[in-house]
Specification:
By secondary structure, the chain is α/β, with parallel strands linked by helices. The chain is built from 10 helices and 12 strands. The N and C termini lie far apart (49 Å). Pfam families: Glycos_transf_1.
């Protein structure tokens, strides 16, 4: 299965997941004592970096004294696949007042044209490539002319460039962070373990591995497909890995690859466009997205280097981890989130 078919399959899953449409937002006419920022989130209790990021933003805001909550559809719903004590509520229990602010993910863009003009809102677009997947013309008109749209947040330089080019309006990039208490490099080189995450780009990653097996290049290496496990187990297995194979496609950011770097891996493969900003050739090996031959050659070259100079991957992985710790820290993430809401004029 090539990239085109992967994209079609992903889109079919996306459509099935959202076929009943976004929840109906309830309104009230009176202001609340504490204007609140509500992050709309689907009731989806499976690993999802996007939803985890919504929870993270709410935590950052509340810790800074800015009232915020994750807004689910069902009463009592909370994501349980990662530990959290995030403030959550539901659409029935928390109607929006005139001073509240609604944050809408790009995956619920069909809600945007239905919002009354009086609803103050922000689009949190974590993947610019999904912007026009549903009701494209209505969504475009909303981005261009809705009086209630106070701002647009994205999580990568690529998405910022894409949406500013499309809509000719300022788009604000907020940073993501990596939990370096979980994702950190080993003190010494690991054994010969190569990892990948089949949830994204499974076919491309596995075809490259078949290619190298055919050449006899994977002898002595263990291949670890990290999938369907809790975050703590992901971190443990990435820390035990030496090389991470990235097969992401049209990513808003590409958190798996950056978490692998934080864990001391030498990352080889596709940056998925959103990850271009951290795929530095000094400590990783980016290859053109979709080019399986180049990915296979790059990976084999890496395996040869490691065989000739044991620890070659580890030394570059440590450099990658150092870069991630500096660029994607919790402090920089928090500062960028708070700066965005201050800039759009939200007064807690």
């Amino acid at each position: 299965m090539g990239l085109e078919e992967q994209a079609r399959r992903a889109y079919r899953v996306y459509r099935r997941y959202r076929q009943h449409g976004p929840p109906k937002i309830r309104l009230r006419g009176t202001s609340s004592r504490a204007p609140t920022i509500y992050y709309l989130a689907r009731d989806y209790n499976e690993p999802s970096g996007g939803i985890r990021t919504l929870y993270r933003h709410v935590d950052v805001l509340n810790e800074a004294g800015v009232a915020a909550a994750v807004l689910h559809e069902r009463r009592g719903f909370r994501c349980s696949w990662f530990p959290n004590q995030t403030r959550v509520t539901d659409v029935r229990s928390s109607p929006l007042g005139p001073d509240d602010l609604l944050v809408v993910p790009e995956t619920d863009a069909r809600l945007l044209p239905r919002l009354p003009a009086s609803v103050r809102h922000v689009v949190f677009n974590q993947s610019g490539h999904l912007t026009w997947n549903v009701d494209a013309e209505l969504v475009t008109r909303h981005y261009l002319g809705s009086p209630g749209l106070l701002g647009v947040m994205v999580v990568s330089e690529h998405s910022q460039d894409l949406l500013e080019y499309a809509f000719r309006r300022p788009v604000h990039r907020v940073r993501l962070s990596v939990d370096t208490a979980l994702f950190n490099p080993p003190d010494r080189p690991n054994g010969r373990v190569l990892s990948y995450m089949p949830r994204r780009g499974r076919a491309d990653a596995e075809n490259v591995l078949h290619l190298l097996r055919a050449r006899g290049a994977l002898g002595g290496w263990t291949v670890d497909a990290v999938d369907g496990v809790p975050q703590e187990e992901v971190a443990r297995r990435l820390r035990a890995s030496t090389i991470f194979l990235s097969s992401s496609y049209q990513e808003g950011f590409g958190l798996p690859a950056v978490e692998a770097m934080a864990s001391g891996n030498y990352v080889v493969g596709f940056h998925g466009f959103g990850g271009r900003e951290f795929f530095d050739p000094d400590f990783s090996r980016p290859t053109p997205t979709g080019d399986l031959l180049d990915m296979g050659r790059a990976l084999e070259e890496c395996l040869i280097r490691e065989a000739e100079q044991p620890g070659w991957c580890w030394s570059r992985g440590v450099e990658a981890a150092r870069h991630v710790r500096a660029e994607y820290s919790a402090d920089r993430e928090s500062a960028s989130i708070l700066a965005f809401f201050k800039e759009i004029g939200h007064r807690p």
